Amino acid sequence: MRRVLLSRVLALVPTLLVVSLVTFSLLHLMPGSPASVILGPDATNAQIVQLNQKLGLNHPLLVQYVTWLSHAVRGQFGSSLLNGQSVISMIGEHLPVTLSLALTGMLLAAIEGLAMGIAAALRPGGKLDHALQVVTSFGLAIPGFWLAMLLVIPFALWTRLFPATGYTPITQNPIQWLHGIALGSIALSIAPAAAIARHTRGALTTTMSQDFVRAARSRGLSERRALLKHGLKNSSIPVVTIMSYHFAALFGGALVVEQVFGLNGIGQLMIASVQDHDIPVVQGLTVIAAVIVIIVNLLVDVCYGLLDPRVRVS
Amino acid sequence: MSSVLVVEDLTVVYGRRRRGRVVAVDRLSLQIEEGTTFGLVGESGSGKTTVGRAVLGLVRPASGRILVDGGPVQHLALRAAIEQGKKAQVVFQDPTGSLNPARLVLDTLREPLRIHERLKRDASTRAAEALGEKVSLAPGMLRRLPYQLSGGQNQRAAIARALAPTPRLVVCDEPVTALDVSTQAQVINLLVDLQRQTRVAYLFISHDISVVRHVSHRIGVMYAGRLVEVGDASSVSTSPSHPYTQALLAAVPVPDPARQRERRSRRRALAGAAVDDALPATGGCPYRLRCPWTDEVCQRVEPQLRPVGEDHLVACHHAERAVLAGQSAEPAPAGQGSTADS
Amino acid sequence: MSLVPAPEVDAGSQSSIVTDHALRRVVRTFRSQPLAMAGALWMALVVVTAIFAPWVAPDDPNAQNLLHVFAGPSWHHLLGTDNLGRDTLSRLIFAGRVALPAAAIGVGVAVGIGVPVGLAVGYVGGLWDRVAMRVVDAVLALPGLVLAIAVVGALGPSLDHAMITLGFLASAGFARLTRGVVLAVREQPYIDGARVVGESTPHILFREILPNALGPIVVQATLAFAHMLLFEAALSFIGLGVQPPQASWGSMLTDARSQIGNDAFLAVPPGMAILLTVLSAQLIGDALRSALVRGRESRGRAARASRWRTRAARVAPRSLDSQPRPDRVLVVEGLRVSVGTDPGVTVVDDVTFELGRGETIGVVGESGCGKSMTALGIIRLLPTGARIASGQVILNGRDLLALTDRQMDSVRGKEVGMIFQDPKGSLDPAFSIGNQVSEPLRLHLGLSRREAWSRAVELLDQVKLPRASERAHDYPHQLSGGQLQRVMIAAALACSPDLLIADEPTTALDVTVQGKILDLLAELRSELGMAMIFVSHDLGVVADICDKVLVMYAGQVVESAAVDELFSTPRHPYTQRLLETLPGSVMPGASLARIPGQVPPAESWPKDRCRFADRCEHAGPICVGEMPSLRPVEGSLTRCIRAEEFRTVEAVR
Predict the structure, then answer these.
(1) Cβ–Cβ below 8 Å for A274 and C150
(2) In this predicted model, what pLDDT tens digit does every residue of C601-620 receive, in sequence order?
(3) What number is the ipTM of this complex?
(4) Which residue from C83, C94, C84 is spatially nearest to C60, judged by alpha carbons?
(5) Pick among C15, C190, C506 to test the B interface (most B CBs inside 10 A)
(6) pLDDT confidence of residue C323
(7) What is the third-level CATH fold of C20-305?
(8) Which domain holds residue B121?
């Protein structure tokens, strides 16, 4: 098991390298010299030279990358070009909002998805199965931010059951925190929940048609018992795997859903920085977003190892 | 008569790292003469399939020499070896996996004609239909996808494809294992007939010693990547000299209850002490953990093939004892699965 | 000599048949699935209106009319107007000109990069493959939208830049998919066959492998199109897509968001446009999948077909014809199994036999003759779609077919045990073998976890699994096939059932291991005294372990006899021929007897004549006149009308 874990952690190295390369190259993707783009058309030569020096752009590319990487590993992404605030502290201010939305959304998605998937698989081809088929089709097709707007209209505008905007840190008041992010999390959870439900149903039906389920039935297990014991354990492996993919999508979706509620999360920060060409902030945000997704995936991989004896034993 | 296939000291190793390195074939030599069948028999994991793949150039040998029709076999990496295709062809076990499910049977049959006879589209269609006729597949059958044909029909199409370049040698890797008995008989008869017509040689690989006995002129028995007994088909099957060959022959149940009741005790005696399907031993004789004759010599010295009769070699220290004991237990199990003599 | 005759003139090429097949399947699928058809129609509508937007749209999408702001739906403005009085419907139609090309760019980039990369690394394999897959996994783990936004930040706001980035990221998925197909296909014997024939690598890649990958790629492309539409909407919504005043479904929602307090309805039309278009793409993708991806399709069908059903038909409990006889463990009477919707196709037809304590009956025949269906019918574990149409299965005087599902659950594993052909597939890889042997003990005997475990170890010891107490903790993948079959036997016999059903239990094993398993079964039978039904296609195995034999052909018992009698004087031509087709029956190299043709599919089994007549050399007019019944001939039962005559003919030979 420890070897499995170690190999999973080592497997992250290429992912992180890809992220760092993409992020680093952002600065050089800009048409024309970065400094002139950042400073706009009216910049003087002296200003450009000064900015180049500040950003380290006068060094060879490789040196720049290594320098940037060595800082990035320590969480130093420089400071904002706009207000000089350190990037990492800006991200620290905005991250809790987005993380709250994303993690709550993922938790909801897992619960909703598994429940729907198991319910559908109990009687494949039954009424409930067909109904859930339709529900998940819509769930997969509906844009999260639009769903958020649709939720805001009745629950926040008309009835005022939930706030249409505003965020309370969890440390301040957990109830209000949940109240504030509830609509957004629900909206975010629908698409991954639909996908998880479909995968769960598919994996369960496939497992239930395996020979070992027939053999278990021949020993006297009822269909339900066989599904809950042999079906669930074997299906959990593919289902857990796809959950990790959906977290990446859900995290991106959270940046957009924030906008619906006017929440000041990293989506807000990112959009503002993009519009202002505040590249260090964009770089920092990209790396942090990727790292969060990767950490969640690592946790999923560990679960995978715990579930599958073929990975665990020998 | 000339040797169509010469294999000398073939060794094939799977896996690169030290851990998980498996010697699939270990210093194996054999020859096949024109127009004859060499039956290679052994249980799963004995390396018999690997021998076939090495002969076809599908796996790279670690050492040794393989000559097909006098020429060395080249490994089929990314470059096609057209000349080799004219010499050696293959029929695989899985009748549905032998043909591309996304292509018409006809298109599969036309490939070798396009490559080797350089036939244009229309000419190759004609020729493919003629090939189909040889294996009793009507032109209408050829214009179907493999899943629309039965297992036996698929296997006949695979045989037609193999014979299209008129090869000197066909490797038959468990060609009838997945078929029902009546279809199996059809395919075996077809292979035998085609051999009479074309003088093609077969390397016939199978786990079923009674099928191998039926089609082969010579038989080689493999255990743990090694040839433990080889020779003329009738002497290997009537006076098996390696305890493993004896166990194999004794374990085949015959469709004759009275004889089978006698054979059961012989089977038990020869199956050896190990209850388990014990893995081959390393060092000494690989069969020693399952062998009823094992003694201290077997642990130390790996037996080499040595003659025990005309065209009959065996790799066992105690072959003579085994043969004697075998004879006393029951007259050698001659016609395998025979009902004719009941 | 050459097998290839001199080529002659044109005979016409037929390769287009394959594409025709695929197209026809697609058309058939869409015709039979109204939802998929609706999706296709909606998608067509969106595409056509987008192309002809200037002519179709009722208004200029950007024409403002400040006198008609927030107008609800009316004849003049079918979907109303927005905060600047612009016609919503016209803006929706023109927005299609943004969304569709953007999504197409994304998919195009993804397919264009992903498929060639997947093909190449899949075929070449080795280090290239490992490196490429690491990168692919890395890319797939990235939050795509975040990267797209970042790239827009560097390159300036442009929808195309964002979509190219997203397409690039999605290409990893296509690479993985294509590589997966290549990897699966290149292990197939037919690819080895193509290499041996001498086909060149490009030919193998594009002619042999790619056709197998096209179906999955088309399906994935359709689904990726749906994703790209959602991405475009999201990017436009946060203002990083198209710039105002140009309309896009996403940017219309931005406007709606800012006016949400004034006019909530504004949010509905653009959202619905996205929802319906994405839904359509997904429905189309699902339909294409069922039409094009044959492997999955058939697997899906198999999955549906093989949920193990337990329900028996509502058979009226018939009073027993004879008094229950205490020495009979099992009496099967007129068992009939059919498949498909009522009345369905009969696959097991009127099977009748009895079995005493300690007795073993062999069921032989070729595949497709109903052997396994008979066995599964008795224990009521038929695959979905199959059901027991009539008959009785009386175990210890009780008709199993009259039991409820719940009662039947308590019979399985307790009074009837079963072992299967594939021991590897029949044990759950996720549970230890000790756990699975304990299952029936805890269920039927109510043993505690610990008691059941120690009993399971005893059982494993009894089936001669070496070091049973240690190995009970092992998982199935750590044992060999023969050992796994021992485990299966231990689990099936855990509660000392009166009947053991063995369905080809040694077919997947090496012949020396087969001998040991047969010995073990014979030994346990004499120890425990259970009756046994032994299904096999191997006549030798049947001769080894059975006391009596049923020979099945086309769903019927054609001969039933004591084992010695059956093998010495077969009384049905099918039995006779089966014995003669065996390689050992003639001199090596001599021609084997053959049964012409093959077992016909169940749909075409005749009801009013001998089913074997078409393949029988002894068949005469009398054989096709009526369905012969199973009748006694000198101690055996045979279904051959000419049994006496044909025996004489055979004797003369």
Answers:
(1) yes
(2) 888 899 889 999 999 988 88
(3) 0.89
(4) C94
(5) C190
(6) 53
(7) MetI-like fold (1.10.3720)
(8) 3-207
